[in-house]
Design goal:
Layout: H1 6-15, E1 24-28, E2 31-35, H2 39-50, E3 62-65, H3 75-91, E4 94-96, H4 103-109, E5 118-121, E6 135-138, H5 141-150, E7 152-156, E8 159-166, H6 175-186, E9 194-199, H7 201-204, H8 208-216, E10 225-228, H9 232-242, E11 262-267, E12 274-276, E13 284-286, E14 297-301, H10 302-305, H11 308-318, E15 328-332, H12 336-345, H13 347-354, E16 357-358, E17 379-382, E18 398-401, H14 404-413, H15 427-430
Parallel strand pairs: 2-3, 2-5, 3-4, 5-6, 8-9, 8-11, 9-10, 14-15, 14-17, 15-16, 17-18
Antiparallel strand pairs: 1-7, 12-13
Helix pairs in contact: 2-5, 6-8, 11-13, 11-14
Amino acid sequence: MTGKTIAEKILSEKADTDVRAGEYVEADIDVAMAHDITGPLAFETFDDVTGDDAELFAPERTVFTIDHHAPADGVKAANNHNAVREFAAEHGAHQFDVGDGICHAVLVEEGFVHPGDLVVGADSHSTTYGGIGAFGTGVGSTDLGTALATGDLWFRIPETKRFEVHGDLPDGVYAKDLILKFIGDVGFDGCTYQAAEYGGGAIESLPIHERLVLSNMAIEMGGKTGFVEPDERTASYLEHQAGIECDLDGPTSPDDDAVYESIHTYQATDLAPQVSKPANPENAVDVGAVEGTPIDQLFVGTCTNGRYEDIKLVADVVEGEELAPNVRMVVVPASGSVYRRMLETGVFETLVDAGAIIQNAGCGPCAGYHQGVLGDGDVCLATANRNFPGREGSMDSSVYLASPATVGVSALYGEITDPRRGDPQRYDDVVLTEEVPT
């Protein structure tokens, strides 16, 4: 019999049976998560399932965050926040409040997720956890409510697409450029209910915050989950960042003879910085195709590119400079720890001096909730993950997606600009990611 993919291995272990792509299993969950938008409905389902004897399947592995409408932008949002606080307190779950950060950043930073875990979150970007080798996937609030009570869910074992990048990435090309390229090649629905495996020398050389970008945006091509095989760099990161020991002997490596739905191979030296044009992430083109497009707003942040290294890269580009005239930059760190580190290292001051507006950690502008909503006719260049019509505000606004390097350099010119024009450094030259928590 042929070997297995990472998805097949993890779900086989969690279901305690030998399964292959296309089969169905009831699998045990390691971690469950919901936030201020998806949590209240999940709580209703939980109450319906459990009745009077309401107990979470594992309070110590259940996490709720207040991150989307944070701080509250209206009474409804405030009431949702209170519902999360009350439910978490009543059932002994972990709860992170306004300013603590986006769920996907917090769960990794605080050590809730380990390689080989099965993690379900009531948020589509729960695929993020595959960046450290977990099977992370988004589920609906009703499924999440059931999982909170039972500790398991039904899954179809996904087929797997593999994306391999060989060689060394050239300057100006980052994980964001890779994932935009992948999405552009297979399409917005090209990986629907499939797993994405990312491998090859260029992927293996990526620091953890970059690997998380690849897994985060697996959902933008329909992916059920997205994996980067964990390694010693993963173990080092988790030890320094979250203080946890990492077991690399789990079901987190594909077999050499694993069967894939397809394999997509790239040479790193052939790749250029990417920009996704409105109004779909699949509209990815080389930056030269849209260079010179005027922009009104730049948005740096989200669960995709709101980590310290992302924001520091932007700060390094704009240090000692000012934003182009009539251009505004909104910066939203992915977590409170990133916010504090920005203050401690001078990144905060550098960005403010350049003219940026810095918000508390959260999701705000990404889905057009608050803290930077776009108006009619506005054009935004963002490090976000989605650019659907109206995603960040007006249905008549336009959002382009790009890497932090592209956004940083473009801020100085007031138009989409090739990041190589600003000669940004590689991340490894900017910060030693695995040793950062200080």
